[in-house]
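Running co-folding for pyridoxal-5'-phosphate.
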Amino acid sequence: MLPYGRQNVTDADIEAVTAALRSDWLTTGPKVDLFENDLTRIAGAPCVSVSNGTAALHTAYAAAGIGAGDEVITTPMTFWATAGTATTLGATVVFADVEEDTANLDPYAVEAAVTPRTRAIAAVDYAGHPAEYDELRKIADSADATLIADAAHAIGSTYRGRPVGTLADLTTFSFFPTKNLTTAEGGAVASTDPALLERARIFRTVGLVRDPAVLRRTDEGPWFYEVQELGLNYRLPDVLCALGSSQLRRLGDFKARRAALSARYDEFLADVPGLRLPVTRDHVDPMRHLYPVRIQGGRRREVFERMRAAGIGVQVNYIPVYWHPLYEDLGYQRGMCPNAEAFYAEQLSLPLFYDLTDADQDRVIETLRTILES
Ligand SMILES: *Cc1c(COP(=O)(O)O)cnc(C)c1O
């Protein structure tokens, strides 16, 4: 089965991991700092590595002080962790609808969803296409809310010339194998606000505080540390950070290949009937994580099944988050975000990854064309 996404691992990656395994450090050594510095050069903001993208979201919400009684506005067109980690902290998630074309959080819908209890707005850069951060920033500032970017799809993307990583107060990344680069499991939180990033660092380091300037008791001894707020062990080990730094050297190549494959899909699928292709706004330069098409005429399920039967691992991204029984049982009702539901009903992700060959892509295109023309 041709997958919809997969990692690219080279001998150089394997050597980097082997060297880390032979070193004195398996976790929380020099490779962590190196990887975080490498990430900072891409994201444009200082970064803290964490153990996965879900942990990155949990850490970002914790750093923003999100808890019971707070409302977090987010999109239903995402992997459910964007909402679920806020729910875990006791917050109430408020789903705002997405834009009809990009499937990104609609600033107008966000504005309408703001209440005095809004504490955070969490956008997702769906498929790698940045959300409308200038508009979201205005709304977040006037609501006195923290702006969070779930950029699990979008490391390396830019918006109005600025890198994803600098657009929100806190930005989260995932390095799961299907994403734009991988550390097997892994993630990061970026922020240009030193206080927020320090809170994130403490949260992912089991809440441990050692800085004498902030200790409550300063005269205990050199071994002393304090836990002042809850934290978890969300550290990313040296071994995986070594893989991450090695992968990041190829991020430009990954982006170029994803762009070239997307351009081929754009060109060769343009005239296929019953198909809508993804849009790219003029002011963004996306790292294309997914190639999401829309299958019209109620044929999405048929096309999904026939593509799979032909050995092409298409995927659906995503089930509207509030459809999950977890949220249904909390009282969320179907129909509340019609654009997201209409998008979901037609959505299909075609294979897109660095090692996808032109020949394999041609087979995807021809199979899809044959199904839709019949
Ligand atoms: C993958 C993903 C996550 C979760 O990342 P993991 O590393 O799998 O925990 C969160 N949000 C979005 C939008 C994702 O695609």
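Result summary
The two ends are 23 Å apart (CA to CA).
The chain is about 40% helix and 15% strand.
Job closed.
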